[in-house]
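Sanity check

After download, print the first record. It should look like this:
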Amino acid sequence: MASELDKIAEELQKEAWAGYTEVVIDHAQNPRNVGSIQNADGVAMVTGPCGDTMEIWLRVRGDVIKEATFWTDGCGTSIAVGSMVTELAKEKTIREATGITQKDVLDALGGLPEESQHCALLAANTLKEAVKDYLACKNEPGKRADQNH
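Expected structure tokens:
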């Protein structure tokens, strides 16, 4: 009986992920960089038009992002894009990170179905907002990036 249930569960998983690349599935099921950073240098929380919320934390040293983490209350696709955008941001300069776009996230994941592409925009926008927060805190000594988060 258990093996029959396992087969059914496996088939349902295959159907759920139909149209997604192996990279997307891997990042959704084994996300990188999940969680917050204590005393982060930059933090942002953005809610997309679909209702998913993403939060990104940055640790910056010498204008280079050394650590980037995320959290989302969204679907598997939101998890995958959060995982990928934080991977893309690590070891980038602040200027390079602000240039990471929806297309960059989509390309790194090998694409997404059209109805899920807005998730990549949410990730790119959240990263940009975290960088803006870092820059605002850098220009306002004494302001902690995560004091409101």
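If your output differs, re-run the checksum step. Summary of this record's structure: The beta strands are 42-47, 53-61, 64-72.
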